[in-house]
């Protein structure tokens, strides 16, 4: 069982591409760095890494390719010092054959070393989709954040991502329990109101048939904590998307999710991306930047990490841009 103190590693996923995972990951990291935290960002989008581009790094000196191909034995050795004080970066490997599908041994090498990285917090920027690699990185992380927008396709995708992540975890935890696996398979069969349709139905069956498996699944569901961030919020009704996912996950997955916050829509985000400059540094007084600060404070509360806000606070006259140094092209 994970405790708040173990939440050093946070994964940002969501299933659908284009919902702002990379922009959010970087903005959140900057907000946390302003609170005195040391962070390492890991671009875990192994098929289309772009986090380094958002940080103004055109040609990374090292990427996960060096680690995957064992040119460097330690993950720590490929950390790049970035333009932002307190933030290191591990770039994704999207330029080698098979990088998007590392072997089981390669994946284990990454996962075993990732929590040992020298930082207060490590943020994983995951790729799109629901491949086993994406799900395994997400499930391995004690801290889990899902990004979504109010678009219907985004709601469908983020629910599918959460469901697939949970089912992947249950399948691995109950790999030798044929009863649980059989019941899990039945939930995907359209049986028009008969049989097993939800995780709650599985729990009801297990409560009667196998109390040990019942208690095990209850613990898994309790520990599988997911936070939601609604992006591109223009009106209050857009924010309701997070509440919809909360209700659907509770009803069909018996899973408690929590809306961590929102990011207001700001057209300046696209301009910042095009200029290869992190958005919060370009628009530090915008509503979206203030939204990021709120989320950063809430995240620290859920990590049980002290908030050293005196070091970099705006009240002390600090400016976000003072921590930015553009990397030479």
> Residue ranges: pLDDT <50 for 5 or more in a row?
1-5, 306-329
Can you tell me the number of structural domains? 1
Write the CATH architecture name: 3-Layer(aba) Sandwich
**Major beta sheet summary:** 8 strands, mixed
Q: What is the CA-based Rg, rounded?
A: 20 Å
**Span of the ends, CA to CA:** 45 Å
Look at the structure and name the CATH superfamily. Answer: P-loop containing nucleotide triphosphate hydrolases
Helix content percent band: 40-55%
The overall strand count is: 8
Describe the structure.
Strands 3-4-2-5-1-6-7-8 form an eight-stranded mixed β-sheet, with helices on both faces. The N and C termini lie far apart (45 Å). It has helices at 21-34, 51-54, 64-68, 104-114, 132-140, 152-173, 178-186, 199-209, 211-223, 236-253, 268-274, 279-282, 287-303, and strands at residues 9-13, 39-44, 80-81, 87-90, 121-126, 143-148, 226-233, 257-264. The longest helix is centred in the middle third of the chain and has 22 residues, at 152-173. The protein has a single domain, classed as 3-Layer(aba) Sandwich (Rossmann fold). Helix 5 packs across helix 6. Helix 10 links the parallel strand 7 and strand 8 (257-264). It is of the alpha/beta class and 329 residues long.
